[in-house]
Amino acid sequence: MDTERTSDYLIVFVEVVATDGPISQQRKEALQQIAVDAGFKTRDLAFVTAFEDRQGDPAAGGCLCWP
Question: Is the pTM for the entire model greater than 0.85?
Fold first, then answer.
């Protein structure tokens, strides 16, 4: 995957973890596909999992963690 950004924007998907857990690889791929279908490049996407506390662990690779 090409990670060098070439645009002036960054599309950020934030999943707030309350009961279902962090962004899974399957969920991340589904969100990527929605964005690609809308004309965005994967290099202009970011994924954040927000946890209630610091005990969480992001499941999908390439996701940022926000405790």
Answer: no
Count helices and strands in the chain by DSSP H and E runs: 1, 3
- For the chain, the structural domain boundaries read 11-66
Report d(CA 9, CA 30) in Å as an integer: 20
d(CA 66, CA 53): 9
8 A C-beta contact, residue 13 and residue 45: yes
Backbone angles phi, psi at 45, to 5 degrees: -115, 145
Ranges of residues in the chain with a pLDDT under 50 are 1, 60, 67
